[in-house]
Specification:
alpha/beta; 7-stranded mixed beta sheet; 13 helices
């Protein structure tokens, strides 16, 4: 085909699915739609590989959501966790089996994109999506969505998946509503071999001084990923926490290779997951676990679901069928990830008031440590644990009661 003809055809070309954003959610969506044999275009505004502020912990649910044959590029395998409460009361707990693995996001994300491409998805990098339109002159019929790029180019698709991160333009189109916004600060700190050896196979989790905050050290060979997270609006205190944390660890003398910040956004319970032929997943949908703010497994799992349902939406011939498929997608997300988020939200509320209780449980109460191990390995989930284990149900109910009591303590009696 001549280049003149192909450029004319490209104007009229309608993709089955266009995915916006090539992080774990977008790459998973593109993979799922491409494996189903559909024509898929994956758009990414950055050039790959690119850095992303993220601890890089791969827990069991993340591992289980990866494409077949995916080789995880682990930088370390975690067998021990040191817990501390604002730098004090440190205790290390160990496991014979690996708890979770640690990856660098640029490498991990690149591999996910390559799997999507092998499945048949096309990739375009360096393109910024300005908006999507589902009505108007750019849209030839009701089965089509127009994806308008910076510079004016318009792409057409039968379904669009928004996976363009926590500041998502597609999320704004869908009307995503947020219930929780947190600020994460992170430093990648290269360290000498003697320091790296001390951290090998062990992570640190520190319950922080700001309500709901915590810090972490994740070793990745000759570099330590050190970060903290807390509610947005506590920027100065969060920065101070990170500086104090790095100082306490004896790492202040080492120059970070990267220092970065990132807002994590958690959806409100009634936030939509679709609008017409447009779905959102991952950070763009506000899908992450509210207490730990773990997002990779939520991105991979929701991305796969979004890709599968985007295929069904692409095949829908009318608004009624489109709506039915979009509702089915929302149900699938809420039935699994939504249940985990609801439990995580209750844990966060209790943790904000009683971090010492969580520290005592994880360091001194065997069932709590066992639950932590089971969740990180992927043999259960927060939702499954509360549903099937009476001790977990009772513990969560007790935490709810303690939180309610704590609330009552600061409320004047009538």
């Amino acid at each position: 085909m001549s280049s003149e003809n192909s450029s004319a055809d490209d104007v009229r070309q309608v993709w089955d699915v266009v995915v916006v954003g090539a992080g774990p959610a977008g790459a998973s969506a593109a993979y799922a739609a491409a494996v189903a044999g559909r024509r898929v275009l994956l758009l990414e505004k950055a050039e790959l590989p690119r850095y992303k502020t993220c601890g890089g912990g791969i827990i069991g649910p993340s591992r289980d959501a990866l494409p077949p044959g995916f080789e995880l590029p682990f930088k370390d395998r975690v067998h021990a966790v040191t817990f501390s409460h604002n730098g004090r009361f440190s205790r290390t707990r160990r496991s014979k089996q690996m708890l979770f693995g640690l990856i660098n996001r640029p490498e991990f994300d690149q591999q996910l994109v390559e799997h999507a491409q092998k499945a048949g998805a096309e990739l375009r990098t360096g393109v910024t999506v300005q908006r999507v339109e589902q009505h108007g002159s750019a849209v030839p019929d009701r089965r089509t969505v127009a994806v308008v790029l910076q510079g004016g180019e318009t792409l057409l698709a039968h379904a669009v998946v928004g996976a363009d991160g926590s500041a998502s333009r597609i999320g704004a189109h869908v009307g995503v509503k947020l219930g929780q916004v947190d600020l994460g600060l992170e430093a990648e700190i290269p360290v000498p071999e003697t320091v790296a050896e001390d951290w090998k196979g062990r992570v640190l989790i520190d319950w922080g001084p700001i309500p709901g905050s915590y810090g972490w050290v994740f070793p990745k060979g000759d570099t330590l990923t050190v970060g903290v997270i807390s509610a947005r609006g506590e920027g100065a205190a969060t920065k101070r926490y990170l500086e104090d944390f790095i100082g306490r660890l004896g790492l202040a003398g080492f120059e970070p290779s990267i220092s970065s910040g990132h807002l994590t956004r958690c959806r409100a319970d009634d936030s939509p997951l679709s609008r017409g032929r447009v779905l959102v997943c991952g950070d763009a949908a506000g899908l992450l676990e509210p207490w730990t703010r773990e997002g990779i497994s939520f991105a991979l799992r929701s991305g796969r679901l979004a890709g599968e349902w985007a295929v069904r939406i692409a095949e829908a011939h009318d608004a009624v069928d489109t709506r039915r498929q979009a509702l089915n997608y929302a149900f699938a997300v809420k039935a699994g990830l939504g249940v985990e988020m609801a439990v995580g939200k209750r844990l966060l509320q209790a943790f904000e008031r009683r971090p010492g209780l969580f520290h005592a449980a994880l360091t001194g109460f065997r069932p709590a440590w066992r639950a932590f191990m089971d969740i990180t390995r992927g043999s259960t989930s927060l939702g499954e644990m509360v549903r099937t284990r009476p001790i977990a149900q009772r513990a969560l109910a007790a935490l709810d009661r303690r939180s309610a009591t704590a609330d009552g303590e600061v409320t004047p009696s009538s």
